[in-house]
Write a structure and sequence with these properties.
- By secondary structure, this protein is an alpha/beta fold.
- The protein has one domain (about 5-145): Response regulator (Rossmann fold).
- The protein is built from six helices and five strands; from the N terminus they run βαβαβαβαβαα.
- Strands 2-1-3-4-5 form a five-stranded parallel β-sheet, sandwiched between helices.
- It is globular and about 35 Å long.
- The chain starts with 6 loop residues before the first strand and ends with a helix.
- The model has no long low-confidence stretch (mean pLDDT about 80).
């Protein structure tokens, strides 16, 4: 029996980054990656087809800004693991400001490295479990800083 294909939504205006991320996901898990540049398009897509993973650029400039989009997806699509991708400056300026319900906040380059370092997964849940473990570690670190 064939494992279900991992479905990944990437919302970012940085086309070379999206292309690199798409290549990495295909190499790691043969994922189906949909890359969009607009938050409204992302929400329309989610109405039509569920996604396992949503990677949202915090600096997205569209009718729906990146942080708001990540929060909307986290609030309305509980089966989607939501990652807010940020620039290093964002992490330094707002280390304790996590939008509620967003699963993971990570630097864009750190995310690309994390994805490429993950073990090859034949099942989407394996990759998602590794991301969930990373998110749990991040939350425990944030809790220790409070």
């Amino acid at each position: 029996m064939r494992a279900p294909q991992l479905k990944v939504l990437v919302v970012d205006h940085d086309e070379p980054f999206c292309d690199a991320l798409q290549s990495t996901f295909l190499a790691v898990s043969n994922a189906k990656v949909v890359a969009l540049k607009d938050g409204s398009q992302a929400l329309d897509l989610l109405l039509q087809q569920p996604m396992h993973l949503a990677l949202i650029n915090a600096g997205l400039e569209s009718l729906i800004p990146g942080v708001d989009l990540a929060q909307a997806i986290a609030d309305n699509y509980q089966d989607t693991f939501v990652v807010l991708m940020v620039e290093p400056e964002y992490l330094m300026l707002t280390p304790r400001r996590r939008p509620p319900n967003v699963d993971l906040i990570i630097g864009k380059m750190d995310l690309a490295e994390l994805i490429s370092n993950l073990a090859t997964s034949s099942h989407p849940s394996e990759l998602l479990e590794q991301l969930r473990a990373h998110a749990a570690h991040q939350r425990s670190q944030e809790h220790c800083r409070l």
